[in-house]
Design a protein that fits this description.
Keywords: Oxidoreductase. GO terms for molecular function: oxidoreductase activity. InterPro entries: NAD(P)-bd_dom_sf, Sc_DH/Rdtase_CS, SDR_fam. Pfam families: adh_short_C2. The chain is of the alpha/beta class. The chain has a single domain, classed as NAD(P)-binding Rossmann-like Domain (Rossmann fold, 3-Layer(aba) Sandwich). The chain is 46% helix and 15% strand. The strands form two sheets. A seven-stranded parallel sheet has the order 3-2-1-4-5-6-9, with helices on both faces. The protein has a two-stranded parallel ribbon with strand order 7-8. Strand 7, helix 6 and strand 8 form a beta-alpha-beta unit. Helix 1 packs parallel to helix 2, helix 1 packs across helix 7 and helix 3 packs parallel to helix 4. It is globular.
Length: 254
């Protein structure tokens, strides 16, 4: 597959799946816009991409802020002159009980990050993707189909919504030559546990326990998810649209 001279936006690309995806695209000589809130982490990703021969456009942005979302698309078009692929990866995980006094506030925050931002970016990017006959890859979650833990209604609802949004928009844009698909990971080894108060031993125990929840007895790496994103964004998948692909180590089988 070749992405040379293809223009690609990857949101949430300062770490994890987004970073791995941006780096994989850079190895294919794509022209990339990387988006995130953490400037230093984004710079680290940018430097890696540049070493691969593709210096990205770096945009510090919060996808829950409308002006920032507008900037992501407008600055990409201003810089590159077109858009071929949108990867809606930015997201957050949090749990909250329906009985919590702040349940609706937390629900709104999760929906704004995991669903509304994707809808808004798609709305703004679609005219440019129609022009280039490009495509969209949304990053969902196995949580769209499985619950896995209590007090997870907000996150699971946001990801279920994203999967169905994918199908709805895929149907609408198909006649205009734009494909839309969704990748739904299960457990992925990223740096999110660093944000939780855990020492090294607790982290190792956390991952070991999580491995037991999957049929394969393993946790996926971000690079594995990125490989699937690149396939769906490529011409190799030119007949694939409106589909959601589980890459969950079999967690939904248990």
């Amino acid at each position: 597959m070749s992405f040379e001279n293809k223009v690609i936006i990857v949101t949430g690309s300062s770490s994890g799946i987004g970073a791995a995806t941006a780096i994989k695209f850079s190895k294919q000589r794509a022209r990339i816009t990387i988006v995130g809130r953490n400037e230093q982490k984004l710079k680290n990703v940018s430097e890696t991409c540049e070493r691969n021969g593709s210096k990205p456009l770096m945009i510090i942005a919060d996808v829950t802020k409308e002006e920032d979302v507008k900037r992501i698309v407008s600055e990409t078009i201003e810089h590159y002159g077109k858009l071929d692929v949108l990867v809606n990866n930015a997201g957050m995980f949090d749990s909250v009980s329906i009985l919590d006094p702040h349940a609706i506030e937390k629900f709104d925050q999760i929906l704004a990050t995991n669903l509304r931002s994707c809808v808004y970016l798609t709305h703004l990017a679609a005219p440019h993707l129609i022009e280039s006959k490009g495509n969209i890859v949304n990053i969902g979650s196995a949580g769209a189909k499985g619950i896995f833990m209590a007090e997870n209604f907000a996150y699971c609802s946001s990801k279920a919504g994203l999967e169905h949004f994918t199908r709805c928009v895929a149907l609408e844009l198909a006649s205009k030559g734009v494909r839309v698909n969704c990748v739904s990971p299960g457990p992925v080894k990223t740096d999110f546990v660093e944000k939780i108060t855990m020492d090294k031993e607790e982290q190792e125990k956390f991952w070991a326990n999580l491995e037991k929840t999957t049929a394969l007895g393993k946790i996926a790496e971000s690079e594995e998810i990125a490989d699937l994103v690149l396939y769906l964004a490529s011409d190799s998948a030119k007949s694939v649209t409106g589909s959601s692909f589980a890459i969950d180590c079999g967690i939904l089988l248990k």
